[in-house]
Amino acid sequence: MDSVSGIVTLTTDFGTADGYAGAVKGVILSIAPDSRVVDLSHDVPAGDVAAGAWCLRVAAPTFPSGTVHLAVVDPGVGGGRRPVIVSRGGHLFVGPDNGLLSLARGEVDAAWTIEPDRVRVRDRVAPTFHGRDVFAPAAARLASGAAAQDFAVRMQVSALESLPLDLGWSEEGGVAVGRVVHVDRFGNLVTSLPADLLVRSCAAGGSADGRPVLAAVACYEAIPDGGVAFIEGSQGLVEISLRDGSAAKSLGLGVGAEVKIITSPGGGQ
Amino acid sequence: MDSVSGIVTLTTDFGTADGYAGAVKGVILSIAPDSRVVDLSHDVPAGDVAAGAWCLRVAAPTFPSGTVHLAVVDPGVGGGRRPVIVSRGGHLFVGPDNGLLSLARGEVDAAWTIEPDRVRVRDRVAPTFHGRDVFAPAAARLASGAAAQDFAVRMQVSALESLPLDLGWSEEGGVAVGRVVHVDRFGNLVTSLPADLLVRSCAAGGSADGRPVLAAVACYEAIPDGGVAFIEGSQGLVEISLRDGSAAKSLGLGVGAEVKIITSPGGGQ
Amino acid sequence: MDSVSGIVTLTTDFGTADGYAGAVKGVILSIAPDSRVVDLSHDVPAGDVAAGAWCLRVAAPTFPSGTVHLAVVDPGVGGGRRPVIVSRGGHLFVGPDNGLLSLARGEVDAAWTIEPDRVRVRDRVAPTFHGRDVFAPAAARLASGAAAQDFAVRMQVSALESLPLDLGWSEEGGVAVGRVVHVDRFGNLVTSLPADLLVRSCAAGGSADGRPVLAAVACYEAIPDGGVAFIEGSQGLVEISLRDGSAAKSLGLGVGAEVKIITSPGGGQ
Question: What's this model's pTM, rounded to 2 decimal places?
Answer without folding.
Answer: 0.95
